[in-house]
Each structure stands twice: as C-alpha cells, then as structure tokens.
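A favour, since you know our structure tokens better than I do. What I am after is a single protein written out in full by you. Could you add the entry underneath, on a fresh line?


***
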Amino acid sequence: MSSPAPGTPPKPCIGPDRHPKRPAFAMPRGACDCHVHIFGPQAIFPFSEARSYTPEDCTFEDLQQLHATLGVDRAVIVHGGAHGTDNRATLAALDRNPQALRGVAVIPSGLPRRELEDMHRRGMRGCRMSTVVSGGASFDHLRGLADETLDLGWHLVLHFHRASELLDVAPLLHEVRSPFVLDHLARISAAEGVESEAFGMLLRLLDTDRCWVKLASLYRLSAEPYPHRDMLPMIARVVGHRPDRILWGSNWPHPICPVPMPNDGDLVDLISLWLPDETSQRLALVDNPASLYGFGQIR
C-alpha cells in the first residue's frame, strides 16, 4: 500500500465494537492475546503524517477493559501503523504492566544500539515489517533488523498484503538466523487454501524451527460469515503440523477492517473450533507465547 498522495488525508477507519460479549470459552490461566494495538491518545501520542489510515483512540485503558471481559491475562502489543516508527505509545503502555505485556516494535534498521537496548528493557521482543500500511518498515529492512536484533533474542514479524509475497521473501527467511512470525496465517485466504503454493511454503518454513504462525484476523481471509468454516482446513493442517509454533491473537481494535466489525467475544469463542483439545489450546494461548515473548512463570 503506497503512501497517500500529498494533500490527501489518510483514510479514516472505524473503531472496534465497544461492547464485547463475555465469551463462552474459558481462557486458561496465563492466556496471552498475541496481537493487539494501542492507538493514541492522539493528544499525547500524535499519529504519523506518513500513515495510510486514521484510527479512533484505542487506549491502554480500553485494552484493559477488553481483556478483563475476555479473560486474558497477558498481551503482546504490536506497534500500530498509524504511529509510524514512533514507538512511544506502545512503550508507554508496556511500562504500565511489564510483567504481563510485551511488544513488537516498528523500526527501521540502523538505529543506535542504545535505543534497541532501551526498547528491550521496556519489553519489546520483536520488530514488524509490512507491505500493508505506509509509514513503517518494509521488507527492505529485514536483513539489517535480523542482524541488529539477533543477540537481543528478538524475532521478526512479517505482515503481508498478499500471500504470494511469502514466496518472494522465503529465500531470505531461510538465510537469516532470527525467529520469525507470519502474521495472519501469512494472508493466505480460504480461496487459496491448503493446495496453494504459499501454504506449502508456510509448512516448509515451519520445519525450520524458527517459524511461528499467528492465527489472528482470519475473518479477513474467509469468504463465509462467522464462524468462517472455510478457514478450518488450513488451520487444522497448521495446528496438526506444528502445535508448538502456533500463536493466537484478537487483532483488536481491528484497524482497516474490510468486513463487518467482529465482536471480540465471538472471536474468542472460535478458539475451541480452531484448537479442539486442551493441549493445543494451552500451547497456543500460554506455553508458546511464554516461550517466544519471554513471559515469566504464572503466579
């Protein structure tokens, strides 16, 4: 997605459903929502002029209320594209609950070492590159970020606009030594499915032992209404192939949502459909996030 033309205001996007249902699915103790964003407050943390969308303020307090309703104990705040490479809003949120929160930064390669170390101290554990939103970091930064953050133990997060981009970047992912996360099932739609070249590559990347797959925002990839059963064949194959590399996220507050805005309680209730046994549920919700993001033991 290219930057807006000069003088063209970024597209506004609607906010989340502010009335989440209490889900029927009971989260296990220590459950982590591995994909949320914080936006604003704009009066304190202005949005980037290079952004491609303008969200509503969706604050730390809003996230706290949501997770209290959903039964979530931990979260990973993925820095939101509307803030560009200014990570202050995310870092300020991490500072407020360092035991229960981790973050994924949006940064260019080439930052001073002291900045990376400060972000790590405050809870950042990865960096995200995107071809979806403007004003952030592109895949051109992948090799540099991999080299600069490897000794910190950070992972790379890839946010694709199209699933075919996974095929383009796969050779480089095989070369670098960093762990990496494929956001949103690598954007492989239900129409593409398990027989697609991109899905085959995803399975091969899982076999590197450095690849993690995030089950989040799958409502965007389905051609069917909730509960999006056309996504189940791919989910079942991935979970069956490497249950120790699966992560779950709500994607709250669902920026740039091209479909009817989901209710986050309904999204939680999909977990029992996607992960039908307690072992896979605990891996995706508790153990895998603890391993990747470095959470401590559950007290």
